Amino acid sequence: MGQVSAPDPAEVARHVASLAAKRDKEAIVAVRDGAAHELVRFAEPVTVNVPAGFSGWRIETSSDAGEIASYGSDVIVLEPASLVAAVTAHLEAVASWR
């Protein structure tokens, strides 16, 4: 039988890092109180004008509108405008499937 050697730990670390979600964009969102815990887990609270029952958060996110849209009415994107438009388009596309 052949021998197997352990991979270089630095190579393993690079590989694991490449699998992580790229959260290289900043966004301001309003999150319904008590909802979307995983979205705000590492977020920073911000003071912004939000609907009653919501709190403002600065989050690090990818540009994936689908990720944020998956929270439905529990999350409202406030900034940047490009992400507002992308999430809105995503939700409208899903709603039109009916």
Description:
It is a single chain. The chain is α+β, with helices and mostly antiparallel strands and 98 residues long. The protein has helices at 9-19, 37-40, 65-69, 81-95, and strands at residues 25-32, 44-46, 54-61, 75-79. Strands 2-3-1-4 form a four-stranded antiparallel sheet, with helices on one face. The longest helix has 15 residues, at 81-95. The radius of gyration is 18 Å and the shape is elongated.
The residue-averaged pLDDT reads 89
Strand adjacency order, main sheet: 2-3-1-4
Helix segment tally: 4
**Head-to-tail CA distance between termini:** 58 Å
**Roughly how many Å is the radius of gyration?**
18 Å
Proportion of residues in extended strands: 15-25%
Share of helix among residues?
25-40%
The oligomeric status of these chains comes to: single chain
- Count of strand segments: 4
Question: How would you sum up the major sheet?
Answer: 4 strands, antiparallel
Q: What string, H for helix and E for strand, traces the elements in order?
A: HEHEEHEH
The structural class is alpha+beta
What global shape is seen?
A: elongated
Question: Poorly predicted ranges (pLDDT <50, ≥5 residues)?
Answer: none
